[in-house]
Write a structure and sequence with these properties.
Helix content is 47%, strand content 15%. With 259 residues, the chain is of the alpha/beta class. The radius of gyration is 18 Å and the shape is globular. Pfam families: adh_short.
Length: 259
């Protein structure tokens, strides 16, 4: 396979896992992250396992138009094509609405929504230029389908991502480029979720060590969402098997959200 995947937010946690999984599936991967050292570290680890030139690391501030434009140029020069864009950058700040700071709300919109828009715009241009029937996949959240207490900024941005996905899908359908959002359940072992456990414990009124089980009990399939669950669905919607699907918000929630 000569296909190239770009993973925004690929320098750590879920993004890094998706990078390796995509390479294992046959893609070459551009690992893009705000932390350039992390991006290059992930790329170097991939190259040491799969061969030099399989991956390259890049710095990007997804909220900055010039930075995203520069990233697109650099990846175009390095790989000469783009077949798949995965937008995996994200941030969450938790607080009751009466205490939610404007800068935290704006940060959530910028990283979770504006960055997605900028990256989808720039990389779809490359796909159209080269006549590639590519794929754009946003890593979203169940909070983009149901409101989330104390997470107004995150949920607002993720709801916006669903509308943006549908709109981009309509714009790009004539080129055969499909666009989807993956609506993830709680990644209980992720650093983002773990960092919010004290706030969740206070919100719910339980001890911090009880938080994970509290969220597991909400899921019909009785476990949290794993990175591999995300990769499995991502690979399907990136493949030709899903060529007749576009503009979808796909639940990866263990049954916690069913619409």
């Amino acid at each position: 396979m000569d296909q190239v995947a770009v993973v925004i937010g690929g320098g750590q946690t879920l993004g890094a896992y998706l990078c390796e999984g995509l390479v294992d599936a046959g893609y070459r991967v551009a690992v893009a992250d705000l932390n350039e050292a992390n991006a290059k570290k992930v790329a170097n680890e991939i190259n040491s396992q799969y061969g030099e030139g399989t991956a390259s690391g890049f710095k990007v501030d997804a909220t900055n138009e010039q930075s995203v434009e520069a990233l697109a140029r650099a990846i175009d020069e390095t790989f000469k094509r783009v077949d798949l864009l995965v937008y995996s950058a994200g941030v969450a700040k938790a607080a009751p609405i009466t205490q939610f700071m404007l800068n935290d709300f704006d940060l959530s919109l910028q990283i979770n929504l504006v960055g997605y828009f900028l990256c989808a715009r720039e990389f779809s241009r490359l796909m159209i230029r080269d006549g590639i029937k590519g794929r754009i996949i946003q890593i979203n959240s169940k909070s983009g389908k149901v409101g989330s207490k104390h997470n107004s900024g995150y949920s607002a941005a993720k709801f916006g991502g669903v509308g943006l996905t549908q709109s981009i899908a309509l714009d790009l359908a004539e080129y055969g480029i499909t666009v989807h959002s993956l609506m993830l359940g709680n990644l209980l072992k992720s650093p983002m979720f773990q960092s919010l456990i004290p706030q969740y414990a206070e919100k719910i009124g339980i001890e911090p060590e009880q938080v994970e089980q509290y969220y597991i009990d909400k899921v019909p399939l009785k476990r949290g969402c794993d990175y591999q669950d995300v990769l499995n669905i991502l690979l399907f919607y990136a493949s030709d098997k899903a060529a007749y699907c576009t503009g979808q918000s796909i639940n990866v929630t263990g049954g916690q959200v069913m619409f």
